[in-house]
Structure formats: structure tokens, C-alpha cells
């Protein structure tokens, strides 16, 4: 049963007072109050079940505020407040952790980012228009491999990832051979996960935990793997709205209360029988990371330490066109991170390095701001429409996340 509106509004107001605001003395009170007000107003509007923002500068958390419900927005469980420590599915921000895992493995000499990957699969992995052009892991990480997403880019184990190979997975030949043209591809990260497993002999979730998540002190995990049971139970559901009611889009009570990883397995096939390197989509390297806003700031900071992740390997060029910008959403990309250069940034005048996330009506992002030595991460855990209207701020910001970018600007005083 849906919670009465008056009770819900009272709860939301109370939960805002519980939000963390670390080191508030570092900010003029008016700036912090304005930022908190934007977040509270966003939730009070009824257009999102929860929202939050964390800002870190020079390694110190200077702002952390959240409002709304992590659980219970659809009446599916007792209400639980959304906090900046609440873990949630962070969609494509996950790719930062995947790319870092690949670069860590390459630094250890365990994998060659420039090797032809075609021989690693039973089916051919060559663009049909460029049969002599090799596809590499570096291409996969930068979305220049010549791939685009087929209708399905995941498969249940023990089926091999090769079973997903179809003619429709190749992008337009007009963008040039692999390594030249950009086309964003979730499927490419499933292939990358498979290659990382084969090189290491480890399941992707465990490899990412060993090389990246654990060393930088995150309690995060792919598809809830490795996440403490108590943190999973306090995690956030993601919601979509149908009419006047919120409905669960993913990570409902059955998942959050299970204390177990969530993966696609055929009936009767136990996870313990999975053979690493057969299906890198199992733990969703493209979007399955569960992490908190505080975690995402650390992840963005770690990303900024890797040269290959902060230097554009592709920039949009209009003539001749060298990729699909998705109406200006993408303009530059490194070997694993999106780059908003200062002249075309949702934080006007400031370069941003990181990644947005959009899935199951969640919209989030984690960004490093080199000029300020800062990172910020934000999220809304549901929206009335799976594709909200684009904000005037930037093609990658919608009318809800624009409020969170504005809150970040308040805090950073830019």
C-alpha cells in the first residue's frame, strides 16, 4: 500500500535533516544552504523518489546531502531514508571501475591493451567493412572498436558470450575502421570483461574487487557481489512512475534482502560452476556496479590518476563526421572515461573527467574537476519518464540532474 502523502512529506522533511554535511565550516553557510535547498526541493516536487550530492575538494568532503527514500517509495517496504552512503546500481558509471581494472591488469603485464582480440572468441570479431583491421581492448574501452549495441548484449551462463555475436553489432562503416570512429557500446564492455577474465583466470567481480574497489577502500561490488549484507539490505531500489505511483524498476526487496549477488544463470546452473572468460556479461561490467555517492567520488579521484583515462583518445569532428555524438551528449572520450572539455561542459568553463549513468530511470554521475582538485557525484533514483527532457545546461543533463549540477556549482562556488 502506498504511504499517505502527508506522512511521506513529513518523512522526507525529516530525512533531509539527517543528511551528512561534512566539513560544512569550509563553505559559507549560504552556499551550503542553497545547495541543500535545491536537493530538498527536487524531492519535494514528487518527480524523484530520492536525490543526493557529494562534493570532495583536495581530498576532503566539503558537502554531502541526500533526501528522499531509498526503499518504500512504492509502498513495498517500510520507508528507509536515502543517504549519501546508500548503495545503488550506478549504471554506466560502472565503466570507470571496469576501465581501471583493465589498466591495472595492463600495468601488471598480464594483458596487452593493443593485442588483436579476434582470436579470443570462437566467432569472428572483425568489422565486416574492415576485415583487415584489428580490434583491441583499448578500442573497446574508448568505444572506437566499431561496435554498437545489439538488441541483447547480455546472456545467461553457461551460454558463451560468442552466442551474442550478430551482424547488427557493427556500427556504420562511414565512421572509419576500428580505432577511428566513436559509437558508444555497452556490449564492448561485456567483451572487455570477458577478456579480463581470460587474462587473469578470475571472475570479473572478484578481479575488480582485488585490483580496484578494495585498494581504494570501497565497499562497492558488481551486481552486489562482495557487498556487505547489511549494506545491501540498506541499498536503494530504483523506481519508475506509472501515473501517480512509483513502481520498482530494479533492486526491489527480494534483491536487497537476499544478501547474494544477482546474476543471470540458466535453470540448474550454479554460479560456482561458472568458468571465467566464457561470459563477461555475467557481472555487468557495463553498468552493474552497486556503490554509494561517497564511493563514486573516490572512484572519480582514482580515475584522474591514470593518464590514459584523462587524455582524450577521440574527439568529435563534424566534417568528416567521425562518430555518433548522440546529439552532443558525447564530444570527447578517453580509454574509459567521458571528457567534457571546458568549452562545452555542464560545469561551464571547467573540464570534467568521469562518467554519467542512466538506466532503470536512475540518472547519476561521477566527475573529477582537474582545475579545482575536486570530485562530485550525484544521483536521482527515479524519474516520471525514462527519458526526461534535456536541460538547457548541456545535452548530457536532464531537467532533474541539472538541479544537482547547479548544487555542485553552489558548493564549488564557480
H/E element order: HHEEEEHHHHEHEEHEHHEEEEEEEH
| Protein structure class | alpha+beta
Number of beta-strand segments: 15
Radius of gyration: 21 Å
Ranges where pLDDT stays below 50 over 5 or more residues in a row are 1-25
Amino- and carboxy-terminal Cα gap: 44 Å
| Biggest sheet descriptor | 7 strands, antiparallel
Tell me the helix content.
25-40%
Explain what this protein looks like in three dimensions.
With 414 residues, the chain is of the alpha+beta class. It is built from eleven helices and 15 strands. Helices cover 27% and strands 17% of the residues. A hairpin with an 8-residue loop joins strand 2 and strand 3. Helix 1 runs antiparallel to helix 2, helix 2 packs antiparallel against helix 11 (401-412) and helix 3 packs across helix 6 (204-213). It starts with a helix and ends with a helix. Mean pLDDT is 93; it is low at 1-25.
Topology, element by element:
Layout: H1 5-18, H2 29-44, E1 50-57, E2 60-71, E3 80-81, E4 88-89, H3 94-107, H4 137-142, H5 186-200, H6 204-213, E5 221-222, H7 229-233, E6 238-242, E7 245-250, H8 253-256, E8 289-291, H9 293-303, H10 307-310, E9 314-315, E10 332-333, E11 338-340, E12 352-359, E13 362-369, E14 374-380, E15 382-383, H11 401-412
Parallel strand pairs: 6-15
Antiparallel strand pairs: 1-2, 1-14, 2-3, 4-8, 5-8, 6-7, 9-10, 11-12, 12-13, 13-14
Helix pairs in contact: 1-2, 2-11, 3-5, 3-6
